[in-house]
Protein backbone atom coordinates (compact mmCIF):
# COMPACT_ATOMS: atom_id res chain seq x y z
CA UNK A 1 0.00 0.00 0.00
CA UNK A 2 1.47 3.40 -0.95
CA UNK A 3 2.46 5.62 1.96
CA UNK A 4 0.21 8.59 2.67
CA UNK A 5 2.01 11.76 1.68
CA UNK A 6 0.16 13.97 4.19
CA UNK A 7 -1.06 12.64 7.51
CA UNK A 8 -3.96 14.17 9.46
CA UNK A 9 -1.43 15.27 12.07
CA UNK A 10 0.64 17.09 9.44
CA UNK A 11 -2.40 18.78 7.91
CA UNK A 12 -3.68 19.82 11.35
CA UNK A 13 -0.32 21.39 12.17
CA UNK A 14 -0.18 23.13 8.80
CA UNK A 15 -3.72 24.48 9.24
CA UNK A 16 -2.85 25.97 12.61
CA UNK A 17 0.30 27.58 11.20
CA UNK A 18 -1.62 29.08 8.29
CA UNK A 19 -4.39 30.39 10.52
CA UNK A 20 -1.91 31.89 12.97
CA UNK A 21 -0.14 33.63 10.09
CA UNK A 22 -3.44 35.22 8.99
CA UNK A 23 -4.56 36.11 12.52
CA UNK A 24 -6.20 39.48 13.10
CA UNK A 25 -6.65 39.85 16.82
CA UNK A 26 -8.71 43.03 16.63
CA UNK A 27 -11.15 41.17 14.41
CA UNK A 28 -11.03 38.25 16.84
CA UNK A 29 -12.03 40.60 19.66
CA UNK A 30 -15.00 41.80 17.62
CA UNK A 31 -16.11 38.21 16.91
CA UNK A 32 -16.80 37.67 20.62
CA UNK A 33 -19.82 39.99 20.55
CA UNK A 34 -21.76 37.42 18.52
CA UNK A 35 -21.49 34.84 21.31
CA UNK A 36 -22.74 34.75 24.87
CA UNK A 37 -20.22 32.09 25.84
CA UNK A 38 -16.49 32.90 25.74
CA UNK A 39 -14.95 31.81 22.47
CA UNK A 40 -11.47 31.85 20.93
CA UNK A 41 -10.78 33.03 17.41
CA UNK A 42 -7.86 33.80 15.13
CA UNK A 43 -9.93 36.58 13.59
CA UNK A 44 -9.75 34.99 10.13
CA UNK A 45 -12.73 35.63 7.86
CA UNK A 46 -15.03 32.92 6.50
CA UNK A 47 -13.84 33.28 2.86
CA UNK A 48 -10.24 32.67 3.91
CA UNK A 49 -11.24 29.70 6.08
CA UNK A 50 -13.16 28.15 3.20
CA UNK A 51 -10.27 28.70 0.81
CA UNK A 52 -7.87 27.08 3.26
CA UNK A 53 -10.17 24.05 3.61
CA UNK A 54 -10.40 23.82 -0.18
CA UNK A 55 -6.60 23.84 -0.47
CA UNK A 56 -6.19 21.05 2.07
CA UNK A 57 -8.90 19.02 0.38
CA UNK A 58 -7.16 19.36 -2.98
CA UNK A 59 -3.78 18.45 -1.48
CA UNK A 60 -5.10 15.27 0.14
CA UNK A 61 -7.74 14.18 -2.36
CA UNK A 62 -5.57 11.52 -3.98
CA UNK A 63 -4.22 10.17 -0.69
CA UNK A 64 -7.02 10.27 1.87
CA UNK A 65 -10.17 8.31 2.46
CA UNK A 66 -12.96 9.77 4.53
CA UNK A 67 -11.34 8.20 7.58
CA UNK A 68 -8.36 10.54 7.38
CA UNK A 69 -10.73 13.50 7.15
CA UNK A 70 -12.48 12.25 10.30
CA UNK A 71 -9.08 11.91 11.97
CA UNK A 72 -8.37 15.55 11.07
CA UNK A 73 -11.56 16.50 12.91
CA UNK A 74 -10.38 14.45 15.89
CA UNK A 75 -7.30 16.67 15.98
CA UNK A 76 -8.81 20.09 15.25
CA UNK A 77 -12.29 19.94 16.81
CA UNK A 78 -10.80 19.95 20.36
CA UNK A 79 -8.93 23.17 19.54
CA UNK A 80 -10.52 26.27 21.11
CA UNK A 81 -10.33 28.44 17.98
CA UNK A 82 -13.43 28.67 15.81
CA UNK A 83 -11.46 28.64 12.56
CA UNK A 84 -9.55 25.46 13.43
CA UNK A 85 -12.83 23.64 13.95
CA UNK A 86 -14.23 25.10 10.72
CA UNK A 87 -11.30 24.04 8.55
CA UNK A 88 -11.61 20.44 9.73
CA UNK A 89 -15.40 20.46 9.35
CA UNK A 90 -15.23 21.82 5.81
CA UNK A 91 -12.57 19.32 4.74
CA UNK A 92 -14.74 16.47 5.99
CA UNK A 93 -17.93 17.87 4.45
CA UNK A 94 -16.27 17.82 1.03
CA UNK A 95 -16.21 14.01 1.35
CA UNK A 96 -19.93 13.72 2.09
CA UNK A 97 -20.40 11.04 -0.58
CA UNK A 98 -18.22 8.73 1.51
CA UNK A 99 -19.84 9.29 4.90
CA UNK A 100 -20.08 6.01 6.85
CA UNK A 101 -22.90 5.15 9.22
CA UNK A 102 -20.43 5.30 12.11
CA UNK A 103 -20.02 9.07 11.60
CA UNK A 104 -23.42 9.56 13.28
CA UNK A 105 -22.21 8.31 16.67
CA UNK A 106 -18.85 9.95 16.09
CA UNK A 107 -20.60 13.30 15.69
CA UNK A 108 -22.58 12.75 18.85
CA UNK A 109 -19.34 12.03 20.67
CA UNK A 110 -17.76 15.28 19.45
CA UNK A 111 -20.82 17.19 20.62
CA UNK A 112 -20.97 15.46 24.01
CA UNK A 113 -17.30 16.25 24.55
CA UNK A 114 -18.02 19.93 23.80
CA UNK A 115 -15.58 19.96 20.91
CA UNK A 116 -18.28 21.78 18.90
CA UNK A 117 -19.09 24.12 21.75
CA UNK A 118 -20.72 27.14 20.11
CA UNK A 119 -23.55 27.82 17.69
CA UNK A 120 -21.22 28.67 14.80
CA UNK A 121 -19.31 25.38 14.93
CA UNK A 122 -22.48 23.31 15.31
CA UNK A 123 -24.18 25.15 12.44
CA UNK A 124 -21.14 24.88 10.16
CA UNK A 125 -20.92 21.11 10.46
CA UNK A 126 -24.18 19.52 11.60
CA UNK A 127 -26.82 20.62 9.04
CA UNK A 128 -24.92 19.08 6.15
CA UNK A 129 -23.19 16.20 7.94
CA UNK A 130 -26.23 14.96 9.85
CA UNK A 131 -28.56 15.82 6.98
CA UNK A 132 -26.54 13.61 4.64
CA UNK A 133 -26.49 10.78 7.18
CA UNK A 134 -30.24 10.94 7.84
CA UNK A 135 -30.92 10.94 4.12
CA UNK A 136 -28.59 8.02 3.43
CA UNK A 137 -29.48 5.94 6.50
CA UNK A 138 -33.22 6.44 7.25
CA UNK A 139 -33.02 4.27 10.39
CA UNK A 140 -31.14 7.14 12.02
CA UNK A 141 -34.37 9.16 12.18
CA UNK A 142 -35.41 7.10 15.19
CA UNK A 143 -31.95 7.41 16.74
CA UNK A 144 -31.77 11.19 16.50
CA UNK A 145 -35.10 11.56 18.29
CA UNK A 146 -33.28 10.63 21.51
CA UNK A 147 -30.91 13.58 21.08
CA UNK A 148 -33.75 15.96 21.90
CA UNK A 149 -33.71 14.80 25.54
CA UNK A 150 -29.93 14.98 25.89
CA UNK A 151 -28.65 17.29 28.65
CA UNK A 152 -25.99 18.80 26.38
CA UNK A 153 -27.21 21.96 24.61
CA UNK A 154 -25.04 21.28 21.54
CA UNK A 155 -26.45 17.79 21.07
CA UNK A 156 -29.93 19.29 21.29
CA UNK A 157 -29.15 22.07 18.81
CA UNK A 158 -27.60 19.54 16.43
CA UNK A 159 -30.75 17.41 16.51
CA UNK A 160 -32.67 20.44 15.25
CA UNK A 161 -30.31 21.83 12.62
CA UNK A 162 -29.89 18.30 11.21
CA UNK A 163 -33.25 18.85 9.47
CA UNK A 164 -32.56 22.29 7.99
CA UNK A 165 -31.67 20.98 4.53
CA UNK A 166 -34.01 17.98 4.69
CA UNK A 167 -37.18 20.10 5.00
CA UNK A 168 -36.81 21.03 1.36
CA UNK A 169 -38.23 17.52 0.80
CA UNK A 170 -41.89 16.96 1.56
CA UNK A 171 -41.30 13.58 3.19
CA UNK A 172 -39.09 15.11 5.90
CA UNK A 173 -41.54 17.74 7.07
CA UNK A 174 -43.34 15.40 9.47
CA UNK A 175 -40.19 14.29 11.34
CA UNK A 176 -38.92 17.88 11.36
CA UNK A 177 -42.11 19.20 12.98
CA UNK A 178 -42.02 16.31 15.44
CA UNK A 179 -38.44 17.18 16.35
CA UNK A 180 -39.38 20.83 16.84
CA UNK A 181 -42.18 19.87 19.22
CA UNK A 182 -39.79 17.79 21.34
CA UNK A 183 -37.85 20.94 22.21
CA UNK A 184 -40.71 23.20 23.29
CA UNK A 185 -39.95 22.71 27.00
CA UNK A 186 -36.25 23.51 26.64
CA UNK A 187 -35.33 26.80 28.37
CA UNK A 188 -32.04 27.25 26.45
CA UNK A 189 -32.26 30.23 24.10
CA UNK A 190 -29.78 28.72 21.62
CA UNK A 191 -32.04 25.69 21.31
CA UNK A 192 -35.15 27.87 21.08
CA UNK A 193 -33.63 30.00 18.30
CA UNK A 194 -32.52 26.94 16.33
CA UNK A 195 -36.03 25.52 16.68
CA UNK A 196 -37.58 28.70 15.28
CA UNK A 197 -35.04 28.63 12.45
CA UNK A 198 -36.07 25.08 11.57
CA UNK A 199 -39.76 25.95 11.59
CA UNK A 200 -39.11 29.00 9.39
CA UNK A 201 -37.24 26.79 6.88
CA UNK A 202 -40.05 24.23 6.94
CA UNK A 203 -42.47 27.04 6.17
CA UNK A 204 -40.62 27.78 2.94
CA UNK A 205 -41.67 24.32 1.76
CA UNK A 206 -45.29 24.61 2.91
CA UNK A 207 -46.41 27.95 4.37
CA UNK A 208 -49.95 26.83 5.18
CA UNK A 209 -48.67 23.83 7.10
CA UNK A 210 -46.41 26.03 9.20
CA UNK A 211 -49.25 28.43 10.00
CA UNK A 212 -51.51 25.55 11.00
CA UNK A 213 -48.74 24.11 13.20
CA UNK A 214 -48.15 27.44 14.92
CA UNK A 215 -51.84 27.99 15.61
CA UNK A 216 -52.09 24.50 17.08
CA UNK A 217 -48.87 24.63 19.13
CA UNK A 218 -47.94 28.27 19.54
CA UNK A 219 -49.29 28.56 23.07
CA UNK A 220 -46.93 25.78 24.16
CA UNK A 221 -43.72 26.99 22.51
CA UNK A 222 -41.30 29.65 23.76
CA UNK A 223 -41.94 33.09 22.32
CA UNK A 224 -38.36 33.17 21.02
CA UNK A 225 -39.07 30.09 18.90
CA UNK A 226 -42.34 31.56 17.67
CA UNK A 227 -40.81 34.90 16.71
CA UNK A 228 -38.08 33.22 14.68
CA UNK A 229 -40.60 30.91 13.03
CA UNK A 230 -42.85 33.73 11.78
CA UNK A 231 -40.15 36.02 10.41
CA UNK A 232 -41.08 35.38 6.77
CA UNK A 233 -44.79 36.02 7.22
CA UNK A 234 -46.24 39.45 6.29
CA UNK A 235 -46.29 41.88 9.21
CA UNK A 236 -50.03 41.72 9.79
CA UNK A 237 -50.00 37.93 9.89
CA UNK A 238 -47.07 37.97 12.31
CA UNK A 239 -49.00 40.24 14.67
CA UNK A 240 -52.09 38.07 14.40
CA UNK A 241 -50.15 34.89 15.18
CA UNK A 242 -48.51 36.54 18.19
CA UNK A 243 -51.93 37.58 19.49
CA UNK A 244 -53.53 34.19 18.89
CA UNK A 245 -50.75 32.30 20.64
CA UNK A 246 -50.20 34.63 23.56
CA UNK A 247 -51.72 32.48 26.32
CA UNK A 248 -48.64 30.32 26.89
CA UNK A 249 -48.43 28.69 30.35
Mind sketching the topology for me?
Blueprint: H1 8-21, H2 25-31, H3 46-60, H4 66-76, H5 82-93, H6 103-112, H7 119-136, H8 140-145, H9 153-161, H10 173-182, H11 189-205, H12 207-217, H13 223-229, H14 235-244
Walk me through the structure.
The structure is a single chain. With 249 residues, this protein is mostly helical. The protein has 2 domains: 1-98; 109-249, Leucine-rich Repeat Variant, CATH 1.25.10. The protein has 14 helices and no strands. It has helices spanning 8-21, 25-31, 46-60, 66-76, 82-93, 103-112, 119-136, 140-145, 153-161, 173-182, 189-205, 207-217, 223-229, 235-244. The mean pLDDT is 95.
**Helical percentage:** 55-70%
Largest sheet: none
Rg for CA atoms: 19 Å
Assign the structural class, choosing from mainly alpha, mainly beta, alpha/beta, alpha+beta, or little secondary structure. mainly alpha
Order of helices and strands: HHHHHHHHHHHHHH
Q: CATH topology of the largest domain, what is it called?
A: Leucine-rich Repeat Variant
Amino acid sequence: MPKKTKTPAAVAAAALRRLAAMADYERARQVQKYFKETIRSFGVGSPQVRELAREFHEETRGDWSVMEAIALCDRLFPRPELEAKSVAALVLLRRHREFPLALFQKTRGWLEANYLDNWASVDTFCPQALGVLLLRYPTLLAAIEKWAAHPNRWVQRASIVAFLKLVKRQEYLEPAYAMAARHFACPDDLVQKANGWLLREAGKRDTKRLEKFLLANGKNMPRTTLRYAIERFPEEKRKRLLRQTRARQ
